[in-house]
Amino acid sequence: MGEAQIDATLKGEEIGNLGLIGLKLTLRLCYANFIVYLILYVTGMYINIYITGGVNTIGISDPSNMIHMVAAILNFVFTFIVMVVGFLYAMRKVAMFSLGAVVCLIVGTLGGLVFLETGGGRLSGAVTLAAGWIMSILFMLALFLSYYATLKIMRAIKVLQATNRT
Amino acid sequence: MREVKRVEEGELGKTLHLIYLFLYLQFAFYWATIAAGMLVNYYYVIPDSLQPDFTSIFLQLFAAPSLFAHVAFAVLSTSMSIPVIVLAMRTKLMQVVLLHAGAITARMVGFVCGMLFMYFGSSSIGNGDLANLSTFIMASVFLTAVILTFMSRIFIVSEDVRIKYQMPAQTLTGRR
Questions:
Q1: Which residues between 27 and 86 in chain B have a beta carbon less than 8 angstroms from any beta carbon of chain A?
Q2: Does some domain include residue A2?
Q3: Quick one: DSSP state of residue A120?
Q4: Total structural domains within chain A
Q5: Which residues of A touch B34 (CB under 8 A)?
């Protein structure tokens, strides 16, 4: 494939101007983000099944809740950094997917706080349940959106490597 | 010779696009499964009338709208792996085939655990610990399936880039 042909094909790609090393670093950050998502999912599942199952409630200072919230904060920080990288280095899709994830994380966190403040249990009322539901689905949506942003970064790396560019 | 290669490229590209389409659908159904699953989690209570036998538990899946939606979306999301496997076999992406086969297996285990949750949660059995464990396993294997299908996309992206940027170069090199 000639240089001109490669350039023409590259026009359809979103490789940005971060460069290969920067993209690889961002990809590592995305992987770290997924590990944190995993911790978030497992702690959420543990709380849901073993703490708030039945009539029990959970408070904000519960150790498992603290781990869950720290994981959520880390997710927010990592996703926010990826979003900024996307905006600064001309990777629109990465930025938009990450922005969606950031919004989901913010609204999901608000849902989680409402869940805690209104009783923190299954029998605490309609608002608590609705807040819990919103928290759960928005965090999972954030995971999916972060995943798509990661894929875009991964694709940019593969394209740069395939065309021997840095 | 070059024309044949171009047709192959085109066919591969089309097949990969189809795989992308099914994966988009799969992820949408995954999310719908979670949304309905959370409705089950917060709003569904196993009725006292539930008998600890297969027929009664199976019919219960159709008794509550949230539970039915959860199972229906779970089946839909899992079934999206079948066309992906077929298409991946056509493009010889064995990693994708194995990852999706693994995802289907994980979802099967999840389905059994879901049924076991109902069984242990029924009033005549009433074993809370095992019911909790079943739910925990169900949620864990669901996540495993999501991770496996997420990973499959990595190989598809790699193949897509290879076709676009490396295959034409290989074709030209071959001609020389």
A1: 27, 30-31, 34-35, 38-39, 41-43
A2: no
A3: S
A4: 1
A5: 136-137, 140
